[in-house]
Amino acid sequence: MTPFKRIGDWERRLRAHYNTDLSTPENRRRAHIYNLWFDHAVLRKVWTNFGEVAPGVYRSNQPTHERFVKLRDMGVRSVLNLRGAAGAAHYLVEEESCRALGLALVNTTLHARYAAPPEDIQAVLDAFRRIERPFVMHCKSGADRAGFAAALYRLVIEGRPMAEAREMLSARYIHFRWTRTGVLDHILDLYEARNAQRPIDFEAWIAREYDRDAAQQSFEARGRRLF
Fold this sequence. Notes:
The protein has helices spanning 3-18, 25-38, 41-44, 65-73, 89-101, 118-130, 145-157, 162-166, 183-197, 202-208, 212-220; strands spanning 51-54, 57-60, 78-81, 104-107, 135-138. By secondary structure, it is of the alpha/beta class.
């Protein structure tokens, strides 16, 4: 076993030790440590990556409980979590905060470093249509998944031009298309190129023509990414 593999295995065991439920005071203490250091909540105490997508629609990194309080106080009624609901410590704390504050929590799943399956993209669009406004959407850092979802909101729900949708995937929010997360921009590139040939609604394209494996392969064929 190489030193790098030993370090990786040790880190995974350490993360699993702290990534626990909230069922006991000790578990709650470990979950707090996990969220603070492994999920980087220590940074999010001072950095929000917050922005307006459209009237009554906001984007953010993963809010702390204190920020959920501030969001509620500014009128936010719902939270769209783009990180999934698999039971990780960060999700359990978020669920608890939303329940205590009366915020409706809607869960979907997106990934930042590979092309999303069409059903995951459609699930986000469906969530947009049923969620109560004002709402905030978030991923972990608020840079990539939140940016892609925000771009889809502008493009599909608001019917705004692609240029305005792409503003949501920018360095302003610490998103860089030259990294592996550029696959999110690539999905929009593929749609834009197809739409230029013969106009097609984005949702129709996702349902009928979008191939996530082909999208991933064509993205990787453009060259090795740094991250």
